[in-house]
Amino acid sequence: MTNVTDKNAHTTTTRKVALIVTLFGLTLALFSSDCGQISALYSRQTTQLRIANDTTIKHSDNVGICSLVNTQSPSRWWTSNFENILNASRHPNDPNHAYDEWTRTILTSLSPEMLLRGVRARPSAHSLKHIFDILHKRFMDPDTFPPLKIAVLGGSVTRGQGCQNPILPGSRRLKLNLCAWPSRLERLINTIVGLQLVKIHNLAVSATNLQFGTQIVKYHLYPDALLPDGPDVIFSSFSSNEQAVHQDTTKSVVFSNQKRNRVQDFITANQMAGPCQPRPPIVFVDDYLGNKQDFILGEMTFNKVVTEFADWYGHVMHVSSADVVRRHVYADTNETTFSSFWPLETAGEYRGQPSVEVHFGMGGHVAIAWSILFAMVDVVKSYCENQAFQQIMKKDGVKGVFSEQVLDLVDEVPPPELKSSLLLQNVSRQWRENAVRMRNSQSGCNNATEKPPCVFAFLAGPEATVRDEVELREYLQPYTIVNKGWEPIMDYGGGGIGKSAKKPGLIATRANASMTLRLAKIAKKVRVINIHRIKSYSDKWAGSNARFTIRVESPAKMMHETQFDVDGYHQIKSSTSHLFQHDLKDNMAAVGSNITVTIDLIGGTTYKIIGMMLCEN
Predict the structure, then answer these.
(1) Sign of torsion, CA 84 90 96 99?
(2) What is the DSSP string of 224-282?
(3) What are the pLDDT digits (tens) for 209-227?
């Protein structure tokens, strides 16, 4: 017979887990609170919360977030809730719980000490205020308020390639997206909470890198499910595709600076995407534990760069599942639970060396979800302790040494870009200048939804703006005036294994293919042309090269022509996306202009475009 006391204790424990685990809901309950609200969060008495629609919801002390973590470190919380985490990690395609013991073995292998290594940088409290507002309303009134929208950007690892393969004899093969860590993280959080608190959209596209993600953020190129406002939180998980193959990057200043530029471009694109709405906080996820580099220090280059910029900007979080298990994997590079199998090359230039492979199996994806969960709990605990300190100081009337201006700059204004030209003697001035520019950009804000800055834009992928060849054809059709040999096609080009790894693109199907698009009387000026194309190898791709001709007819009937060539072939044995960006400068198209874009295949017999944008900046 079940003991009633034990059952009640278990129910209470489960409820506590549900409240603690939501990083953005639980952490941020404090982020938007004044001292009176903070006291309520610690109180065990019934309080009232007024929400956006002026309704009043009564809630008891069980919502007192900090009272639930006040005496527990993240490590202690993890240990005491081991079984709850394990149960919430069950996959819906495992109804008979065949994977329970396998999952338990992995969870047992990841000690709190190891998981703590994965917390590379915490976000500032102030940057998460808006997120808490969303999550707290959802938690208190799920019938009225929608779940938090999270967009996960990444490449084939994030999409789930390699995760789908069965682990146990006789077990079924899983779909990529359902097996991948974003889907597992969503189920983990919502199962523990007991409601759909978050909705995670996995927008990963195989063979893409951080430049691809930057375009999505900068130009607001999200799928319809995330429009018009876009996501509330952005996860960036491109670390596997930000590594160079077979290069000694430990001595390459150029490589490190390239990564710094890409990370900073992503962060600033998010800040500048629209001045009239709260910018989504960024969570960088480092899931790379491959063997692209020939030197260990090179393997960790991107990881260190992201941590550097996360610390600098303050509102960025960085979680590294790779750091959780890195030392154990390097102690035995033959293990294949958290990293890939690396067989030796049997031919070619790298014969006798391990094959380059970054796609680990299901164990790696399970570990990533847990690493992020542990980082969430860590942020909750850290914030609660800090907020308690601030409350005590405010109650005692104690003021710190920092002026209100300095505090406002740190909380409200992005710091200057972290470049080699930034000096100690000009950093404060540039920070204040950022504040002035931000106020000026916000002066014309109203409640209207900001419009994307592009007159023509598509990105192709499973959850991109066009998801298959049919949607791509429908998008291009109104603009197409000539087409000889270019077709929207779903193919395997650009990485991926299996039918679910196919992705769409505009593909040249024969030599000398030609296509012309026309945009009439544009409503926004166009200065920048962005092209995302696949670069690949093999005889099929040899010599692949396309010429883009841009003709602008101004409202005054003045004609300007710009022409450039973009190659589609490389000798690296992988298919990867690359961004080509051209600034029209003096030939930019003014509002009311007509634009034609002609794409001619001038080399090779194939070419693949997975994104093209004509934008004002």
Answers:
(1) negative
(2) GGGTTT--SEEEEE-GGGGS-SS--GGG-HHHHHHHHHHHHHHHHHHHHS-TTSPPPPE
(3) 999 999 999 999 999 999 8
